User: Which sequence fits this backbone?
């Protein structure tokens, strides 16, 4: 027969065991919450990094920065707003490729301007031959070959970074001239370390890439200050009139509704020319 003292001890032990079980369950739930929270943070970090990857920028494969807290209003994919751009001139992009970058022919002490006659208006770029000689030399060569003529600007970003990307004759974000260019002028905005973040100011024209020293023909036009790793060769600036054209394109939004897609505006470079002055 169980005594009262033995019964009391048994009940106390059972109560203690129940308390320990509840505490173990609480600790397990806390661990699960921590794991889930960690996974969410990892996903967010990965998403941010993917957003600021190049322009795949830009080919976009850059390491990137925190998104801006303010973003311009973009038209939705189903927007019925009229296309702000005119019909493209007759013609189609070229398909010629080159195995090697062109021989250096520009004068790095001279002034060069690249004029983009687009369906949305003319965009004039002042090129910096002294700071980015290989890049400017390549653009001088490609423009003379008609490489940019009849090509679409295939990407517009309206969240976090604010750029229009052009220069791909395939219009897919993966095309180029067949050769690669070295990175140049990466310290233009104060830092060179790819782990840092700098501001590419509105009015900058820079090279897209898919990693170090992989520039080709794709470039991006910054229409609003954008945080990026200093991994993209800045090689010129956009004229005030060209900025107005960019703002018009940006105001029409992009096709995905997610802040990164094809422009709703039909942006085609009818003709690109580089002139020395």
Assistant:
């Amino acid at each position: 027969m169980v005594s009262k003292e033995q019964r009391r001890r048994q009940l106390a032990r059972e109560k203690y065991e129940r308390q320990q079980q509840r505490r173990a369950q609480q600790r397990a739930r806390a661990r699960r919450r921590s794991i889930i929270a960690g996974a969410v943070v990892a996903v967010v970090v990965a998403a941010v990094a993917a957003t600021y990857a190049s322009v795949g920028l830009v080919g976009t494969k850059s390491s990137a920065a925190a998104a801006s807290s303010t973003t311009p209003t973009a038209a939705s994919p189903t927007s019925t707003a009229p296309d702000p751009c005119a019909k493209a001139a007759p013609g189609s992009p070229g398909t010629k490729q080159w195995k090697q970058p062109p021989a250096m022919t520009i004068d790095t002490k001279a002034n060069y301007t690249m004029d983009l006659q687009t369906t949305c208006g003319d965009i004039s770029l002042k090129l910096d031959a002294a700071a980015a000689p290989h890049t400017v030399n390549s653009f001088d060569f490609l423009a003379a070959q008609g490489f940019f003529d009849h090509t679409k600007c295939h990407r517009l970003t309206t969240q976090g970074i604010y750029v229009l990307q052009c220069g791909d004759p395939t219009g897919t974000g993966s095309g180029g001239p067949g050769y690669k260019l070295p990175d140049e002028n990466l310290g233009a905005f104060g830092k060179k370390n790819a782990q840092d973040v700098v501001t590419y100011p509105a009015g900058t024209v820079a090279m897209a890439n898919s990693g170090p020293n992989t520039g080709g023909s794709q470039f991006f036009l910054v229409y609003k200050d954008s945080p990026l790793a200093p991994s993209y060769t800045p090689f010129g600036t956009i004229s005030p009139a060209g900025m107005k054209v960019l703002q018009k394109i940006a105001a029409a939004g992009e096709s995905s509704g997610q802040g990164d897609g094809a422009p709703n505006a039909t942006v085609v470079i009818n003709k690109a020319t580089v002139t020395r002055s």
User: Anything to note?
Assistant: The chain has two domains: 1-51, 112-276.
